[in-house]
């Protein structure tokens, strides 16, 4: 599903109206009806329920007036609180204001600070709130009286349905510079907006509903390459079916090069992640001194000991043996728990340009490239890098705050400059691709901020690559399935105390939920 900026959405609206003759009033009516359906979902029977509709002076407010009319017709007691003078309302919004007034229904202007006492009184008796104050054109910080109204809405504790976007969130960036509505549900129109799927805006959205407002569907699909919200349907279509004749050799072979003294867990989690993602055969290569430990920990994964240093890390001389092992592998995953030992760093730097199979590079595999990140552009096979924000800042030599505040731009620049798929981990993980397309992951939760979670993800992506998925799709699907398994684990066990092993355990269930009945070809 495409994700758009506010400007792109306005252009789609314009095209629908001017080129296809769909009146703006029709789009507004459809938008309002979509919001009404969610309000009905929240309240159940709306007859006799009290709903406060807060409307601004733009088209977002016009949508809110449509909502008010239909809720009134359904028997709700509706109060429209207008954050503008009636004479300031224009266009299609003015038409809907006139309809509301001709129905004999009042509007309650909120123009001054002293009006807030009436706002709070309305909120005390309300069963639900509709936020139609600001739309996708909003930027900056809300000023009075809107700022006070937003704070009163948040303090009320009532369920809030936001129209298109929670008031106070910037549609293009997700930035929040002042008071912002914390919605229970957000009904966005036609396509998700970037600000709804990026933090901090995402935390204000609640449950996101994407509503059809009758814009021709082919218009919504144009714009490739673009930005996309990963959906279950997309992942289902990408996952390769397993034919009835499948065997372990036909389901992909992954070589995981990982681990060092004191960091065996990262290696185990990555290897098991590949196996849980469906790879037929997984081999873990690590310093020889660790092989006995790994063989006991891993019963479903083959282990190979490689030359090591006195410090228990992989030696530079392991390069030739790794390349030999790769002759019998479809994918390499490298990095988890490798260490930053100078010999190991040299090994990584010499190995990557020699690869002939796709690779996933994580953790110390990435740290080995700090100061020489352009080495990535010398990799001649499909590659996925999976840094978190600190690792990305280290690779780029930029301040961490810049990476955090410009996540989307940073990931897209990295993918374009390095020629690899750049997966930037975090809330709403980003998967930026060299062709200019970017995938935004909606799954996952704060409970997954635990040691080893990223190692599991590395293995999952490698396992999907080994089954024949392209690097962009393996990274995007891997992020989605990894986050979905984390969400299942959080529901079952709670977020606090959730472990990487819990994610591993539920990966097959996450995949099964997505696949439904497409397992057998």
TrEMBL record:
Its Enzyme Commission number(s) read: 4.2.1.136, 5.1.99.6
All copies of the YjeF C-terminal domain together span 231-514
MF GO annotations:
ADP-dependent NAD(P)H-hydrate dehydratase activity; ATP binding; metal ion binding; NAD(P)HX epimerase activity
Q: Per UniProt, where does AMP bind?
A: 425-429, 454
UniProt KW keywords:
ATP-binding, Isomerase, Lyase, Metal-binding, Multifunctional enzyme, NAD, NADP, Nucleotide-binding, Potassium
Give the InterPro entries listed for this entry: Carbohydrate_kinase_pred_CS (IPR017953), CARKD (IPR000631), Nnr (IPR030677), Ribokinase-like (IPR029056), YjeF_N_dom (IPR004443), YjeF_N_dom_sf (IPR036652)
Reaction(s) catalysed by this chain, per the record, are: (6R)-NADPHX = (6S)-NADPHX; (6S)-NADHX + ADP = AMP + phosphate + NADH + H(+); (6S)-NADPHX + ADP = AMP + phosphate + NADPH + H(+); (6R)-NADHX = (6S)-NADHX
Q: Where is the YjeF N-terminal domain?
A: 9-221
Assembly and partners are described as: Homotetramer.
Query: What family is this?
Result: In the N-terminal section; belongs to the NnrE/AIBP family.
Protein name per Swiss-Prot or TrEMBL = Bifunctional NAD(P)H-hydrate repair enzyme
- From which organism does this entry originate? Desulfofundulus salinus
